[in-house]
Amino acid sequence: MRKFIGMLVLVIFVISYAFTAMVIGDMTLQHSSRVVQLLYFGIAGIAWTIPAGAIIWWMEHGFRISRRRDAD
Description:
The protein is 75% helix and 0% strand. The chain has helices at residues 2-28, 34-47, 49-61. The protein is mostly helical. 0% of the residues are buried. The radius of gyration is 18 Å and the shape is elongated.
């Protein structure tokens, strides 16, 4: 069940992130140089991988709290 929920969250996140990054870039960088546009869209194109990686990690591991047995 966790993988199904994670898949839905990941798809919704990627679509909304791409749309938001595109709108922000289009609205704020219309009159900027090509270098600034390239930097923005390059960074925005890579930045989504950090939260997506966290979602994928959660899908695989969950939020388990590990207990050390030798701590007693």
